[in-house]
Design brief:
160 residues; five-stranded antiparallel β-sheet
């Protein structure tokens, strides 16, 4: 008569003497870290580009405000750009205000071309601005143009 022997069956993933980690645990931890890194690292570069975009939006807002203010009040408004100090000084119905923008690189006018140094004074008349204005902004990674159309009074932010 044949003797039946019991076959030993091992349980996968269970170890009686816990010395290390299972392959499943290691894969799960690596997956969690990779998902966290994929979410966190791209957002750091967003913080760097938001400064230049914020400056562009604020300059666009100032140009729109000066143009609309001059048209509605029937008084001339002015904008003085100091390219050395990277500042804007604007005079409108609310008085004189000054803002500094580290990202201003140059100003392009139809009448004078590209200007990257010195002072530039722009006037907004009761009929609107006299010419198109392009303000070039740049930082280490990107560059933008704030383009003001004197005919429509619209401002566009163009990425380069």
């Amino acid at each position: 008569m044949a003797v039946k022997e019991r076959m030993r069956i091992s349980k996968a993933g269970i170890c009686n003497n816990k010395v290390g980690f299972t392959l499943l645990e290691l894969v799960l931890v690596i997956f969690i870290f990779s998902v966290a890194a994929a979410i966190v690292f791209p957002s750091f570069s967003v913080f760097e580009t938001t400064k230049i975009k914020s400056d562009a939006k604020k300059i666009a807002s100032i140009l729109r405000y000066l143009n609309e203010s001059a048209i509605t009040t029937k008084e001339t408004s002015s904008l003085k750009l100091d390219l050395k100090r990277k500042s804007l000084l604007y005079i409108a119905q609310d008085g004189e205000k000054k803002d500094v923008f580290d990202t201003i690189h140059a100003v392009e006018l139809q009448s004078k071309g590209m200007l990257s140094e010195g002072d530039v004074t722009l006037f907004f008349y009761p009929q609107g601005a006299a010419e198109n204005i392009n303000i070039h902004l740049s930082d280490n990674k990107s560059s933008l143009i704030v383009a003001f159309n004197h005919l429509s009074g619209r401002v566009k932010i163009i990425e380069q």
